[in-house]
Amino acid sequence: MSEASKPDSGKRQGHTRNARRRSRELALQGLYQWFLNPTEVGEVDAHIRDAPGFDKADREHYESLLHGSVHHLDALMHQIQPFIDRPWGELSPVEKAVLVLASHEMNTHVEIPYRVVINEAVELTKTFGGTDAFKFVNGVLDKVAAQARDSEIKAQANSQSS
User: Fold this and answer.
1) 160: alpha, beta or left, given left = phi > 0 and alpha = psi -120 to 50?
2) Burial of 142 (0-12, 13-18, 19+ CB in 10 A)
3) pTM higher than 0.70 for the full model?
4) pLDDT in tens, 81-128
5) Fold observed for domain 12-152+155-159
6) What is the mean pLDDT of the chain?
7) Phi, psi at 6, each rounded to 5°
8) Most buried residue among 56, 87, 118, 125 by CB atoms closer than 10 A?
């Protein structure tokens, strides 16, 4: 079997998955920086692009996450706030960044299953957030998903009950 006719192996899917994971991590770092020092998002973007490992990220996904999250921040906060149990100002910068990033990804990247978005957000929170912050993030994003991905959740429930 020639190289051209071989079926696509899991390596390519793994590469895409790892590149997306890296793009989420870098976008989170950029959004975190932006929350701490709200400046022109282009400045934060330039700094992140110089970070080690940026070449391994999915650039388009990174750009969509960082720039989209900043551009749609007010709408995303409005979407998230009904599901948090304390004022926005009391959330840590990591919690804010993860919630905004994941909510934006759920709203705009419907090709990515909502469970993947939530799981990735939980993993980012475990890595960068406080001890139990991942539980809070998981609970909030479950509620955001119920609103943002209602039809996907219903379709999944219907397929499981069949």
Assistant:
1) alpha
2) middle
3) yes
4) 999 999 999 999 999 999 999 999 999 999 999 999 999 999 999 999
5) N-utilizing Substance Protein B Homolog; Chain A (1.10.940)
6) 88
7) -70, 140
8) 125
* The two three-digit tokens of residue 17, written as one number: 């998955």
Angle 109-111-114 from CA coordinates, rounded to 5°: 75
> What pLDDT shows up at residue 151?
80
One-letter amino acid for residue 115 of the chain = R
Question: Which letter, b or e, does each residue of 106-125 get, where b requires 16 or more Cβ atoms within 10 Å of its Cβ?
Answer: bbebeeeebeebbebbbebb
